[in-house]
What we know:
By secondary structure, chain A is mainly alpha-helical.
Amino acid sequence: MPATEVADIAALRKALTKYEPALYKEMNKEIRVALKVVQKSARDLVPASLGSGLRNFQGDSTTSKSRTSRKRAFPKYNASTVRKGILISIGKSKRNNQGFVGYYSILNRSAAGMIVELAGVTNPGGSPQSQSNNPNAGAHFINVLNHNVGNFGKYGKGQRSKGRIIYKAAEMDQGKTRDAIIRALAKARQTLVLGYGKAA
Amino acid sequence: MATTQENVRINFVTAYDGKGLNNAKAQLSGFDKLAAKAGKALVGLFAVQKVEQFAKASLKAFTDDQAAALALTKTLTNLGLGFESTRVADFIQKLEKTTGVLDEQLRPAFANIVRATGDVAKSQELLNLALDISAGTGRDLSSVSLALSKGYLGQTTALGRLGAGLSKAELASGNFATIQAKLTKLFAGQAATAADSYKGKIAKLNVAFDNMKETVGKGMIDALTTLSNTGGSLDLATTGMKNFGDEIAYVLTELSKLIVKIEKLPGVGQTLKDFLSKPITLIPVLGDYIQLGLENKQRKDAEAAAQDQIKFGNYIANNQKIINKLRDAAAAKIKADNAAQLKAERDKNALAKASAALKLAEKVTAMDQIQLYAAIAQAQGQDLDRLKLQQAILDGNAASATALANKVLQANGLVMDLQGNIKVDPFAQWLISLQAAADNLKKMQDSLSKIQIPTTAAAAAAGMPTYTPLTSDAISTIAGNPAYQSVGGNALINAIINQQATEVKVTVDPAAMAYGITLANQNQSSNGTQTTLSRNNPGYFIPQS
Lengths: 200, 545
């Protein structure tokens, strides 16, 4: 279920902003409503607790240290923070290395949320570069997440288009949100074109 | 479907950004040029005539670098900072890598500054600032560092010439701390930005290439020294290096000739070209698979992209009815919106027009007021009332205006009915007539008052009969006349004489009275016949004696 390419979306958004700001707002409102469905679904997937076995990740008794960053400690899991970090965006993303820009997105922005989302995507058995004294720490961490949060959902192409929260929510949505967005875009485009007396 | 460490993000809609492509093209173009240059350089490097030059350039780079390093070390030693040499060398090396500025430039710049400050930490700070200013203004690092070192010592003229945005007052103050703070604020991050740019990256490549030359130069010297068994003498090693270059040149010349010959051989030339275009295919067995895999991947990517486009096209086509409905609804909405907007614009225009008219009217009213005051001062009568009425209207004084309006209307024989219609006063003519009658009566009275009763003498003079009043003798005579006395004349005469009210009794002859009544009856009847009266009591008409 990949993202749909809408070739003229940048031009459409630009034209709407310039000539029909009210219509643009209305369209964004519709899209927001559609995106909020996935957002809610994703937030519902965030468990209140990750169960036992990840004392350092979700407990308050210890101070986490990062082996890779001196400025920032390894984040603690907090369901409320993770839920708050699941956001929707109607703006555009940065261009990827293939020149594509994404629009109308759902984001998982909290540090702990990202970890829960992606841990094990690349290395399901834990990273071979792990610096932990326990060689099975990575695998254990991933297993606990799989058990308490759920397995990966897939949305889009490629090996890395997998995740436990927003990807799972998007997969469960079965393209309804995407269709609603396309419908809102098509509707706005038609209205805009008609408004200026041109053929559709 | 970008998943980075900074953002886990799912995009529901994507679009290809041509801007990125253009940038990429520009970058690729730049890279091509660089590659071409690098290729040329490499070709040149391995070309026979360039080998000696490269060797010399490498040696020169190494020796220059070493000389500059030694000069800086000496400077530090002279300043009593010799123990900081290693730290400074590391700093210069790191700075070279991060900014893409060659150590050949950094070392003299650092030396300039450290000579002025005498402090390594401060010099590092100022060198960073100099790099920022150099990147921001485009001036060379040497002049900027010199200006900063002079500025540190209180000579701010050179700083002013940098065009770095320092005011005369700031320069004249000579307060280097203030100047440094201002420059830091103005040029913060310029060097880092420049280093991140394409030009900066090229500069970094240049640095790397330069360092490579230096390393090669050092290696060559070491190698030649070792090979020539000079025991570390560079003078003797130079001869060995020259010989080494000549040998290499000879080998490469012969190699190029060999390649030309090979290309001319049937079959072999094509293989060489294939090697240049598809080197992977030349890997035995595995190369074909890899090449096939690469081609399959490219084909699949193209098909997937096309499929997405088709899906979107089909989606639009399948929902044409919905779109048509939406179109109709949108058209109706647009029409309604346009009408509403048009009406709003009209109202707005009308309001603006009214507002403008009111503003104009205010000015006119002010002029009218002035003129009215002037006119009222000179007017009188009806004109005054009319002018006062105008003033009352302008002032908005309704009561006064109503009263004055009625007054003016009345003066003109007009009235206003309850509906506010003005018409001729139906009673106005009556008043006029009455007034005219009164005027005429007054005139008559005046005329009569002017008439004089003529005196006896005047009447006699005018030939008119005269009235002679009774004399007392005549009256006495009349009073003594029994004839007058028998009819009561005496009393009458007395009354006349005395001008007193006196009861007078008149005795009438009954026969004469009867005759008179009969005559009157006859005259009053229509046929001239006397009316007969039946008398029940004949004694009723018997007159008293």
